[in-house]
Recover the amino acids of this structure.
């Protein structure tokens, strides 16, 4: 009977770990659902039944996407759902009857990492990315780096936020991560 109790305890622990991973993944999906488009995002626009109006487009420096037939449409600062509605509304203005539009993100805008990492620069964003993943992409910390905390400036924010590396702070598209030098 003792082995059965141990197996039950192990099974419960495994279940709790899986639930924790699912909750963390749900947080990632919530961040993506609440995502606002910005410069550098690459989108796939699908207008059902109209292959000539569909394709992949990138949000330009002005925050717009230039679409066939309707021209520039503001994308920056809009959610995917809002942008779909904007494109459908523009297509309904004398171009198509009851247009059905679907938009998905092909590539998120990159994040940047600067300071005491081996390869500072701009890197592609992936859903679920945290600070430690970002530092690893940048070749790890230099020998002078303050490894305990980093500073993140989220896109659209005026101020940096201090993040504990061990806590696994989330990285979002367009973020700038700064790794400071230690004093001694």
């Amino acid at each position: 009977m003792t082995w059965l109790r141990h197996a039950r305890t192990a099974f419960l622990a495994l279940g709790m770990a899986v639930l924790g991973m699912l909750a963390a993944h749900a947080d990632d999906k919530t961040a993506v659902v609440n995502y606002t488009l910005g410069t550098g995002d690459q989108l796939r626009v699908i207008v059902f039944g109209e292959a000539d109006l569909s394709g992949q487009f990138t949000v330009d420096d002005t925050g717009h996407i230039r679409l066939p037939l309707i021209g520039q449409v503001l994308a920056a600062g809009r959610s995917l759902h809002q942008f779909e509605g904007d494109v459908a509304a523009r297509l309904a203005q004398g171009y198509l009857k009851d247009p059905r539009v679907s938009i998905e993100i092909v590539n998120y805008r990159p994040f940047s990492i600067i300071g005491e990492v081996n390869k500072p620069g701009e890197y592609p964003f992936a859903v679920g990315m945290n600070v430690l993943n970002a530092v690893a992409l940048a070749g790890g910390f230099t020998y002078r780096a303050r490894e305990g905390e980093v500073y993140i400036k989220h896109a659209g924010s005026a101020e940096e936020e201090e993040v504990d590396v061990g806590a696994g702070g989330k990285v979002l598209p367009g973020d700038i991560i700064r790794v400071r030098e230690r004093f001694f």
Q: What stands out?
A: Residues 1-34 form one domain. Strands lie at 42-47, 55-58, 64-67, 71-74, 101-107, 111-115, 121-123, 149-153, 161-164, 176-179. The first strand starts at residue 42 and ends at 47.
